Amino acid sequence: MAPSRDLMGAAEDLADQFLRVTKHYLPHLAHLCLISTFLEDGIRMWFQWNEQRDYINLSWGSGALLATLFVFINMCGQLAGCVLVLARKFVPYACFGLFGIIFMQTIAYSILWDLKFLMRNLALGGGLLLLLAESRSEGKSMFAGVPTMDDISPRQYMQLGGRLLLVLMFMTLLHFELHVFTIFQDIFGMALIILVAIGFKTKLAALTLVAWLFIINMIQNAFWDIPTYRPLHDFLKYDFFQTMSVIGGLLLVVALGPGGVSMDEHKKKW
């Protein structure tokens, strides 16, 4: 037990040192990663305007006018939200706008019936929830008058919800195949997922997940190796940036901490 505790302690010390060095840059990197999928999708809407309009028109029989309006709202909503988040201006409104974009796309592109994509969209929503929690000032509450229990604020419940939703991304990466490396990867990933969800050793677990997810993303979603004319290029590109957004959410977990609804917080009371 002693060697394992020493190893865990050394890992936590390394994580703390990393946070001390990057504390001024980490939130900005988290924001950039988090909005990357919206930024990429908004730009893609511009360059694939006709294709997106025709897809919506054919899928829903909405007519060219409504289909054009849908693409316009998607493009402007995403790009405007990204600018506001990066400028750190009206961030709550930007978050609610991006939540609306996720909801619209879930319905319009029939993501609701594709479990893998639905879970990833929910994970993306978890990242926005953490961004909303970060932006919420303790002094000026958006939820003034909302009762709290045990001195736990709505912000801390948002942090809990964000953590739980981020976990869904990793559920889509589990393979459950009878290969030694795959079994190890599933067990290792599941352990880290549980730690982040319950808020135990949260910063270390989240940092480890960031590294793991980044490596998997670079290997599995290498869209730059696929010719642009192939549909797989756009699919992998979409997947790549969506994964980067979840990485941004995890970096916010690292920067903000797990919040009051977590085992890390309760350990302080023991």
UniProtKB/TrEMBL annotation:
Keywords for this entry?
Endoplasmic reticulum, Membrane, Protein transport, Transmembrane, Transmembrane helix, Transport
- GO terms of biological process kind: Golgi organization; protein transport
Q: Give the record's GO CC terms.
A: endoplasmic reticulum membrane; endoplasmic reticulum-Golgi intermediate compartment
Q: Does this UniProt record's set of keywords contain Transport? A: yes
Q: Which InterPro entries match?
A: Surf1/Surf4, Surf4
Q: Which Pfam families match?
A: SURF4
Q: Where is the protein situated, by its record's location annotation? A: Endoplasmic reticulum membrane
Major location (coarse): endoplasmic reticulum
Membrane topology field:
Multi-pass membrane protein
Question: Which top-level group of life is the source organism from?
Answer: Eukaryota
Please give the name of this protein.
Answer: Surfeit locus protein 4
